[in-house]
Amino acid sequence: xxxxxxxxxxxxxxxxxxxxxxxxxxxxxxxxxxxxxxxxxxxxxxxxxxxxxxxxxxxxxxxxxxxxxxxxxxxxxxxxxxxxxxxxxxxxxxxxxxxxxxxxxxxxxxxxxxxxxxxxxxxxxxxxxxxxxxxxxxxxxxxxxxxxxxxxxxxxxxxxxxxxxxxxxxxxxxxxxxxxxxxxxxxxxxxxxxxxxxxxxxxxxxxxxxxxxxxxxxxxxxxxxxxxxxxxxxxxxxxxxxxxxxxxxxxxxxxxxxxxxxxxxxxxxxxxxxxxxxxxxxxxxxxxxxxxxxxxxxxxxxxxxxxxxxxxxxxxxxxxxxxxxxxxxxxxxxxxxxxxxxxxxxxxxxxxxxxxxxxxxxxxxxxxxxxxxxxxxxxxxxxxxxxxxxxxxxxxxxxxxxxxxxxxxxxxxxxxxxxxxxxxxxxxxxxxxxxxxxxxxxxxxxxxxxxxxxxxxxxxxxxxxxxxxxxxxxxxxxxxxxxxxxxxxxxxxxxxxxxxxxxxxxxxxxxxxxxxxxx
Length: 519
What we know:
Blueprint: H1 2-18, E1 23-26, H2 32-39, E2 48-49, E3 51-59, E4 66-68, E5 74-81, E6 87-96, E7 102-107, E8 112-115, E9 126-127, E10 131-132, E11 135-142, E12 151-160, H3 188-191, E13 194-199, E14 203-210, E15 220-224, E16 238-241, E17 259-261, E18 263-269, E19 274-279, E20 294-295, E21 304-308, E22 316-320, E23 325-327, E24 340-343, E25 359-361, E26 367-374, E27 384-388, H4 389-394, H5 404-407, E28 416-417, E29 433-436, E30 444-445, E31 448-455, E32 459-466, E33 472-481, E34 484-491, E35 498-506, E36 509-518
């Protein structure tokens, strides 16, 4: 009997250890010299590439790497290795986590990225911010009894060969000015609105948050049309905030912790090189992101400032002391077709590849355009051209080709708008109130659940019900509502009794409430 017991223990121990080894994904590292040579042949007016993509087809539930923790939770681990990569990033075509589950991605040189059911999106994708180094571990933790209640299908691994390195080989040109330097002191609020972003895990540009006439923090992000964001790939956008050198003059050493993933495409107008997206959520308040003011008047600009990520490195600031000219793109004749501002030559700083999409500010610190292209660089007096916001305002005359309906949703007709800065003077904006009725006390007994909410002003609202697995079980509303109180009914006849999460998205915010249904 004793020998049998010992044998069973030994067999169980061997079985457990057999499933405790992480799954391995080995990929070839990037050939930096070959990729840099290839970059020189890319279209000069396109986005900058920073990573070499690997197409993969990997599902967490179709292989090894699984074990079970002492508390009953299920764990899956994957080690990804791509020798010589400066960074790694991952794209999941299918991503859904149940409530209580976590996915962490940790690079050998950090940082640690953490995702939960709050990161579930209707499009079902997740594209991660980069982690540093050529080796990363992915760890999925599932609650007890939910071993199969998730979706995790990886289709992309980006292997960085430039950008986000903490060395000095790929830093911006010597004439660039770190925003931490004293030259940026009068522009601190605007600096916090600018971010560098990636698309599809390999292309990169600059953009900035912009305010709207409701001053409500809707996360509109303005960038360049030639950076090629569209309806299909907006979900792959990852924005990095506060990627800045901590020391004036170093031009490297930025922190990558403040990053968010996912967006919805809103508008594009190629003649003025405008693209507008809306991030899937507001940036974390601890990141202190601001929303730039703008001037759509098209009036003359006596001097200008650019805030940008040259070579998609740390954030820099540039100054033009002369008046801007109105021209066509890459042309010198005034006024040309009137679509662009020409910066004659930068007096301090410059722009580089990766600066595309960055905002241009007038002397009143308002956005008047975004960078299209040019020949400016350290050591020359060449020009840059920015698509004019005044042209993009009406664009092609439709909602998806102009800025007006997004940045002036209230229809005020405003010509100028100042910055919205959550750290600045307070702007009074009553938040929409979300509350349950008929479920007091909770749990709610019945099959038709009335859900009440109110809006302080007219606006769009989207409401959905999710189960504990993070699956959407009902879409209750996705439409415009007027000011005041509203009731939406959840027809719950087809679901079982239990706990559910109701999610309301409105005015750039996501509000949730739990309810327990008893039938």
